[in-house]
């Protein structure tokens, strides 16, 4: 290598040399992986041949055990190969140069562990204890680390390195490169998907990630402090540290919206974990997926625990249109059970049985009641027995029970509330008159639109538990065409959360039953609701927004689970904090608590966050305000505008020239339609913003981030959101680098109304 006149190498030469050294090691790792891959393929092929049999008839015992052995081998080998293929990119991302009394050691850190033929580690899995100093070492507590190096790779090429020195002065042979990996990572542009941070996890984050599984681990902190990304790395860590328990028992990750799950879905696979179930809150119950959000008043009624009494009454009520009395000639005796008698027996049976598994006790209770009415003084015990057995097998009784006491689907029962008279009756002394109306209106909206709301889903879950499982489809459904279903699916996907193409859910704009073909009720009742799936670990993000009824729904899925709970009270959109806290404690069921607080905002440039901070401090003086660590020198733009669409167009085009990655327009429902057209225009226009620009409604922006945002009509965002200014705070903390805030002047606002 050439040097300058004084014999020193230039910085470019130093960098090239260091990268070449790292490349050598990375090449060795990939070579080893190729060998391992070939071995895995061999094992797979070997496994296949072991289970093969020439005969077409029955399989003998010894052949069976061959098949089991084969399955186990094929499974393991296949999985290993799959891992290796998936981990190809950026497999090695770190290097530690360490020094202890025995001398120097170099340790490479990567997404999976790789060993050479002598079983010597070439790469240590980031979750292994030996990788811990990579994350925990600091200049104050170096843990034998001299230098921590973060490698940047594209495919299998090393393209950059950033060093942090843990000692005051580097030994002569240790070169120090770059400005530090964290700042380099934070300055990069954002795409539509969250990235893992495995190479730059900070020490305080690592503590939360590696905390023991037991009990409840709470991660709190202000916006952009890495709560979500830390929690996801924690899920990967738990799977690594106790794979048997968490892979078999399952890990459930729950977030606020489908847009959020789409945003984070790549993080765990990039960490080598695919066995985690990701769900939006409106998507937790099988066969009941939310397609819309409720207006704040309806969401408040449905989220509060008071609704349980309303649901309890509904779950015990008679089926609409069911016969009101039973009349039949049974064993030569005229039986008549009137409505009051039936009501009395119904409550008695329901005191001891789940409704959907009470057919037999109900039939016997009716028989006993009928006998008490028709018995004669000279009847003997055998007459009673004969009467009862004739009663329970009687065709007319059977026909009556099929209509009066058939199993009911929890979704069907919830839809009974669309009837204002029923809703009033169930809500008496529990909800106000107005609340009962709001509830009933909202269920009519569900029925008309064919779309469950996110809050409906937790009510269905509650009813499901009250009613007991329906073994077969209880309702005779109308016939509907496949094309109609496709059309409904297409409409649904337009309305759920954020979509790149269209505005997010807007209750007033939902299609009515008349606008849509087919029977929306059939659509709402499609599929089968089984008992809740249970998990060994439940991770809840944006926990501050989970309503008390939703906590109950989550609690049913984690009765024996450990929990990771992530949240920030200042971003809450759920008002009654005390009720939600109590419901959440009930859901956990475990008193063991561990709390981690995150105090550094890694997302927002300092200038963007200062703007948001001012807004929240005015209304929530005790908000948890983190420190933003990165400066851009560019202040957010705040403009009063007459033509909102034109101003948004200008802002987007300006921002597109300033940032490389994603841009979002965050707008309240009032502007959604016009801005959706603008987004369509810009995405396909000459600016070519296709993959970069999205339109998002304020609530659905929770948990997401973009390079730049255009925030439209902040006052209206406050006015339309259940959480008011807290939701605006969420919106104002989504931009990493640039933000424009557009305030319509009075002329444009009144034009809109
Ligand atoms: N150690 C780190 N290295 C690199 N990037 C990081 C690190 N920690 C956090 N980040 C980045 O900071 C951003 C914010 O993280 P995240 O979304 O997890 O924050 P949050 O606390 O959940 O935010 P909010 O509550 O506002 O939704 C993400 O882009 C994340 O990748």
Topology:
Blueprint: H1 11-50, H2 61-86, E1 92-100, E2 103-110, E3 114-115, E4 121-125, H3 132-136, E5 145-154, E6 157-165, H4 181-187, H5 203-209, E7 216-221, H6 227-241, H7 243-249, E8 251-255, H8 258-264, H9 267-270, E9 276-280, E10 290-292, H10 296-303, H11 307-316, E11 326-330, E12 333-337, H12 339-352, H13 359-374, H14 381-393, H15 395-404, H16 410-415, H17 420-427, H18 433-449, E13 452-453, H19 454-467, H20 482-495, H21 520-524, E14 537-540, H22 548-557, E15 562-567, H23 577-588, E16 593-598, E17 600-605, H24 606-619, E18 627-630, E19 637-641, H25 644-658, E20 663-666, H26 669-684, E21 693-696, E22 706-712, H27 714-720, H28 725-732, E23 735-744, H29 746-752
Parallel strand pairs: 2-4, 7-15, 7-16, 8-9, 8-14, 10-13, 14-15, 17-18, 19-23, 20-21, 20-22, 22-23
Antiparallel strand pairs: 1-2, 1-5, 3-4, 5-6, 11-12
Helix pairs in contact: 1-2, 5-6, 6-7, 10-18, 11-17, 11-19, 12-13, 13-14, 17-18, 19-22, 22-23, 24-28, 25-26, 27-28
This protein binds adenosine-5'-triphosphate.
Adenosine-5'-triphosphate binds at residues 182, 185-186, 195, 197, 200-202, 205, 221, 223-229, 568, 602-603, 703, 705, 733.
Protein name: DNA helicase
Keywords: ATP-binding, Helicase, Hydrolase, Nucleotide-binding
Domain UvrD-like helicase ATP-binding: 200-605
Would you write up a description of this structure?
The protein is of the alpha/beta class and 753 residues long. It folds into five domains: 11-187, no CATH class; 210-285 and 532-598, P-loop containing nucleotide triphosphate hydrolases (Rossmann fold, 3-Layer(aba) Sandwich), CATH 3.40.50.300; 290-317 and 410-524, no CATH class; 326-403, no CATH class; 604-752, P-loop containing nucleotide triphosphate hydrolases (Rossmann fold, 3-Layer(aba) Sandwich). The radius of gyration is 31 Å and the shape is globular. The relative contact order is 0.10. Adenosine-5'-triphosphate (ATP) binds at residues 182, 185-186, 195, 197, 200-202, 205, 221, 223-229, 568, 602-603, 703, 705, 733.
């Amino acid at each position: 290598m050439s040097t300058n006149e004084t014999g020193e190498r230039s910085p470019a030469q130093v960098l090239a040399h260091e990268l070449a050294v790292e490349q050598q090691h990375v090449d060795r790792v990939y070579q080893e992986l190729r060998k391992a891959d070939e071995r895995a393929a061999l094992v797979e092929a070997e496994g296949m041949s072991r289970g093969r049999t020439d005969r077409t008839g029955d399989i003998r015992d010894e052949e069976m055990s061959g098949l089991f052995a084969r399955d186990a081998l094929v499974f393991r080998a296949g999985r290993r190969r799959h891992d290796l293929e998936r981990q190809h990119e950026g497999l090695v991302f770190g290097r530690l140069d360490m020094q202890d009394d025995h001398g120097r050691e170099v340790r490479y850190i990567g997404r999976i562990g790789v060993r050479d033929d002598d079983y010597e580690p070439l790469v240590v899995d980031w979750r292994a204890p030996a990788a811990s100093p990579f994350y925990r070492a600091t200049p104050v507590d170096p843990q034998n680390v001299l230098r921590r190096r973060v490698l940047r790779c594209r495919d299998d090429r090393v393209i950059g390195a950033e060093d942090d020195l843990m000692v005051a002065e580097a030994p002569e042979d240790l070169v120090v490169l770059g400005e530090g990996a964290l700042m380099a990572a934070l300055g990069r542009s954002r795409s539509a998907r969250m990235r893992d941070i495995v190479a730059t996890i900070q020490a305080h984050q690592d503590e939360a990630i590696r905390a023991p599984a037991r009990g409840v681990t709470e991660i709190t902190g202000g916006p952009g402090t890495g709560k979500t990304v830390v929690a996801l790395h924690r899920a990967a860590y738990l799977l690594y540290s106790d794979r048997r328990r968490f892979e078999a028992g399952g890990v459930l990750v729950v977030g606020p919206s489908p847009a959020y799950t789409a945003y984070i879905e790549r993080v765990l696979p990039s960490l080598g974990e695919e066995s985690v179930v990701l769900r939006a809150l409106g998507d937790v119950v099988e066969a009941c997926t939310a397609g819309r959000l409720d207006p704040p008043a309806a969401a408040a009624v449905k989220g509060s625990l008071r609704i349980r009494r309303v649901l309890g009454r509904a779950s015990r009520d008679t089926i609409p249109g069911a016969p009101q009395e039973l009349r039949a000639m049974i064993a030569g005796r005229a039986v008549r059970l009137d409505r009051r008698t039936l009501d009395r027996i119904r409550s008695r049976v329901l005191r001891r049985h789940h409704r959907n598994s009470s057919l037999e006790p109900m039939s016997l209770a009716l028989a006993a009641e009928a006998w008490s009415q028709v018995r004669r003084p000279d009847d003997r015990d055998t007459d009673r027995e004969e009467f009862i057995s004739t009663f329970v097998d009687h065709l007319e009784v059977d026909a009556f029970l099929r209509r009066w006491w058939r199993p009911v689907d929890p979704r069907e029962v919830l839809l009974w509330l669309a009837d204002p008279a029923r809703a009033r009756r169930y809500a008496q002394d529990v909800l106000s008159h107005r609340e009962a109306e709001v509830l009933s209106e909202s269920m009519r909206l569900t029925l008309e639109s064919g779309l469950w709301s996110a809050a409906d889903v937790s009510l269905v879950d509650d009813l499901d538990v009250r009613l007991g499982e329906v073994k077969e489809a209880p309702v005779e459904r109308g016939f509907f065409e496949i094309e109609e279903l496709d059309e409904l699916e297409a409409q649904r996907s337009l309305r759920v959360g954020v979509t790149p193409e269209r505005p997010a859910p807007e209750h007033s704009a939902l299609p009515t039953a008349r606008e849509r073909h087919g029977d929306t009720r059939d659509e709402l009742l499609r599929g089968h609701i089984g008992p809740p799936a249970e998990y060994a670990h439940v991770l809840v993000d944006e926990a501050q927004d989970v309503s008390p009824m939703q906590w109950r729904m989550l609690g049913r899925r984690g009765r024996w689970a450990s929990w990771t709970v992530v949240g920030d009270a200042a971003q809450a959109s759920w008002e009654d904090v005390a009720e939600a806290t109590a419901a959440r404690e009930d859901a956990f069921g475990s008193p063991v608590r561990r709390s981690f607080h995150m105090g550094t905002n890694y997302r927002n440039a300092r200038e963007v966050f200062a703007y948001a901070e001012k807004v929240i401090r005015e209304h929530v003086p005790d908000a948890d305000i983190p420190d933003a660590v990165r400066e851009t020198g560019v202040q957010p733009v705040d403009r009063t505008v007459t033509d909102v669409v034109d101003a948004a167009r200008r802002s987007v085009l300006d921002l597109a020239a300033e940032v490389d990655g994603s841009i979002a327009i965050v707008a309240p429902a009032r502007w959604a339609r016009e801005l959706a057209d603008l987004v369509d225009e810009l995405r396909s226009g000459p600016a070519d913003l296709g993959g970069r620009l999205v339109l998002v409604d304020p609530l659905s922006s929770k948990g997401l981030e973009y390079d730049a945002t255009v925030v439209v009509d902040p006052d209206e965002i406050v006015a339309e959101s259940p959480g008011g200014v807290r939701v605006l705070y969420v919106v104002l903390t989504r931009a990493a680098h640039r933000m424009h805030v557009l305030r319509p002047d009075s002329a444009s606002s009144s034009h809109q109304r």
